[in-house]
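FIELD: query
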Amino acid sequence: MNKVLASAAEAVARIPDGATIMMGGFGLCGIPENLIAALRERATKGLTVISNNAGVDDFGIGVLLRTRQVRKMISTYVGENKEFERQFLAGELEVELVPQGTFAERIRAGGAGIGGFFTPTGVGTLAAEGKETRVIDGKAYVLERPLVADFAFVKAWKGDTAGNLVYRRTARNFNPVMATAARTTIAEVEHLVEPGEIDPDHVHTPGIFVELILEGTRYEKRIEKRTTR
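FIELD: result
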């Protein structure tokens, strides 16, 4: 099976309007820059995006918000994006905020085929509204259901043509778990190599989880807030 795509444009040509997409990254670290840019150019609309955050106004998922391609965001933190705030307050964007640990576990559960789990996080808050609660060993818990997606966009440092991926330091973040929880995982990598060039002990995401892979170009790797003395 040939998993290699020539470009990000070829990858996003497979994404229909209304799709649900998981996008890796934390802030602007480890985001699928090429795939997001290509999706913006294609103008695919009505998207549900599952991502830790919404990027910033002019980079990351923020560019998809500016072009009104996102219908719903499922996120944990959205404080760096003024356009996100404006659309949310104006009722133009549906938002589901999820505690970060719960967010990660919901994705892991989706990838593992687990139907749900009970967590104490969010009990007695808005996060628990409309959800089943249960007392276990004298402690209250709320039922959280798994998150799955039609597609996952993940970003890795290195990958081989069989889809095996290696992430670099904190750019690993949500990428590995998202790769397991979508029907189709598309990986963009900085370095695309042949099978056998990656030590099996160094593989973070096995190729069985990756349907398509491409080598990205011109990574900006922006920093959200640079602090100097």
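FIELD: remark
The chain has a mean pLDDT of 95.
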